[in-house]
Amino acid sequence: MTRIAKLLRHRIAGGTILGGLGGLLLVCAVLAAAAAPVLAPYRPTDIDLRQRLLPPSWDAGGNMLHMLGTDNVGRDILSRIIWGARISLSVGLAASCLGALVGSTLGLCAGFFGGWTDRAVSWLIDVQLAFPFTLFAIFLLAVFGGGFMPVVAVLSLATWVNFARVVRSQALSLRAQDYLLAARAVGVGTPRILRRYLLPAVLPSIVVVASFSAAQAILTQAALSFLGIGVDPTVPSWGTMLDLGRNYLQTAWWMATFPGIAIALTVLGANLVGDWLSLRLDPRGS
Amino acid sequence: MNETLLDIAGLTVRFGGTTAVSDVFLTVARGEAVGIVGESGSGKSAAMLAAIRLHPPGTGIETERHVLGGEDVRNATEGKMRSLRGRFVAMVFQDPLSALNPLLPVGVQIAEVLMRHRRLGRRMAHLEARALLTRVGIADAAAHEHRYPHEFSGGQRQRVMIASALAGDPALRIADEPTTALDVTVQAQLARLIVQLQRERQMGLIWVTHDLALMAGIVDRVVVMYAGRIMEMAPAGALYFAPRHPYTVALLASLPRLDRKRSPVLPGAPAPPGGVAQPGCPFAPRCSKRIDKCDEVPPLLEIGESLAACWALA
């Protein structure tokens, strides 16, 4: 009994249980996105006006054909949530990757070269952080129009800062390491030092920041869709579903609640995985 | 006369407001081993880093002459220096654990130097890396080349460092306290290895250390530094048997010996890093032979085979 308790405590302290839970949530979301055509009972755009505003199956008046109910024009909520995972995940992943690419490169150069490179990058970071981001994103998307790539690009504006800050500070401390001096003393060039000596050392942090950034991007993307400047209004996304459901909160709570839960669980999953990764990959953590 | 590998004169290194090295000169010929001795902060490492232009950014260095491999490198670009480093001159550092990349297997690190400087393909480079590891005394190199630095013992690690400094087949090797972090028996083995390799390949060697005793029998010539200045420069034999400068005399006297209960200790405290505030000879405050003239900087005087910077010898 004590052994099990000990193991359990160890698992909790090491974040394994919560990390596993987060992983499970993410796997579910990814599965939903990947297998949406197979999993979803209906097409997300199928309108059935006779079945509009059906409550979830366990509620009075609900039926098993529409597990989570239907919306104001009779589209199946469950199917729309499953399809909506595609947008959320792909935008989150893309924004996180693009941010990682740009932010890590800038951070690495800033930390390693120092001097004016560092000042320029630090200034950019400060400028970026000084903007109220959501307002800035709304402005940009309103001016340049929505769509997948514009949304990803705008969200990357928020995520790259996370990478740049973390990577810069690590590169700064690694720069003074003897092995970099020793590598230079045998003639290893700067690009090679950045790629082979610094990048592997900061990679664990990049992975951790990436999972948190993905969560942030998913959330912001949903917020943008909610405000009607999302990827594409005709494609179901969790944010647009929320927006639509807002008008029916009094009469059809399920329209906004279920997409909201989907967003919350996915973001929670990404954050839990991020926590777990940072515990596992941090060399100082035991 | 053998080919001169490094010829540096009037070397001054400044970190911010402090002068770490002033007016140092040094020549090393092919096949010659030169020792540089000094306490911590005497500027020996700073001088060597400046000699291969790896001084930290923000450091001011001045030279009257700086010839490396027959080329004037006073205004050399970083690219030019990079092609010299590793290929012509390589450096071995004191602490091999921090001087090896902890994230790459050692074989890869050595192979990288081979690919860069000897233009070997990946496969050839790995074979050659294995041969080098074997040469520096690592048994079963084929298995060890895939290991990471932390999987080696201190002595093995320093052998790996030596192998990577050999990889470019440099004409000149600078060893900065290569054995200081190791225990005494391993120290002796490695010292022997370094000298063997130097003789075998007719390399030039600069051995930086604070351990006068270790260098006896290894080097041909010794440079004694104190507070960034050269105190004495002499052939090894002359230095050990007939030290001229009061600092050298005191250093040699302070070496622990088995036939004495206690060795005399140098009076006073070592010069602070970055030089001494007072003008004149930096050693004067601790010197037993101090005279009035020591308020001026002494020039290097020729006494027999030695050069010594001391007014008392004039």
What does this structure look like?
The complex is a heterodimer of chains A (286) and B (314). With 286 residues, chain A is mainly α. Chain A is 73% helix and 0% strand. The longest helix of chain A has 37 residues, at 77-113. The model of chain A has no long low-confidence stretch (mean pLDDT 87). Chain A is globular. Chain A has helices spanning 2-13, 16-34, 36-39, 77-113, 115-130, 133-144, 148-175, 178-185, 190-226, 238-246, 254-281. Chain A has one domain (3-285): MetI-like fold. Chain B is 31% helix and 23% strand. Chain B has 11 helices and 13 strands. Chain B has helices at residues 44-51, 78-84, 96-99, 106-117, 122-135, 141-144, 154-166, 184-201, 212-215, 236-241, 246-253; strands at 4-15, 18-29, 33-37, 59-62, 65-68, 71-72, 89-92, 172-176, 204-209, 221-226, 229-235, 301-303, 306-308. In chain B, the strands form 2 sheets. An 8-stranded mixed β-sheet of chain B has the order 7-8-9-3-10-11-13-12, sandwiched between helices. In chain B, strands 1, 2, 4, 5 and 6 form a 5-stranded antiparallel β-sheet that branches. In chain B, strand 8, helix 8 (184-201) and strand 9 form a beta-alpha-beta unit. In chain B, helix 4 packs across helix 5, helix 5 (122-135) packs across helix 7 and helix 7 (154-166) runs parallel beside helix 8 (184-201). Chain B starts with a strand and ends in a 6-residue tail after the last strand. The chains are: A mainly alpha (286), B alpha/beta (314). The A-B interface holds A 114-115, 177-179, 181-189, 192, 196-197, 200-201 and B 49, 52, 54, 57, 82-87, 90-91, 93, 95, 98-104, 109, 112-113, 116-117, 161, 164-165, 167-168.
